[in-house]
Design a protein that fits this description.
Length: 136
Amino acid sequence: MEKYDGTSCVETFLVKFQTCAEYNGWDDRDKAAHLKTSLSGGAGLLLWEMQDATYEDITEKLRRRYRSREQQEKFRTELKYRRRKAGESLQELAQDVERITVLAYPAANATMRSARQRRIHRLAEQPRIGVQGPRT
């Protein structure tokens, strides 16, 4: 299991951790123990105040510390202005829009995912700058 130090996306780390826990059949006590050993750097400092914490307590604290409202607003703005880059495939665009959407709207539901798909299709249909031929 990889380490988490607070410098990367906490949600990505927790999804990977949960996948590993499910695969290995860990109960909540096992998950808490493995999660504690996976924290390093700034994230590891949380353990000083949470020695007897449950798995839910630790994940909640990680989310509160590393997924702030300001970060969500930043990602919402990034999503609003995201455009398909020259040479970027539609699949690359879709992956990046999905990543930004999850970070901007952590509690997204099916309606939100549907809106994201519509946005991807609109972005794909927009002409790219510099693609037009010469004027005559």
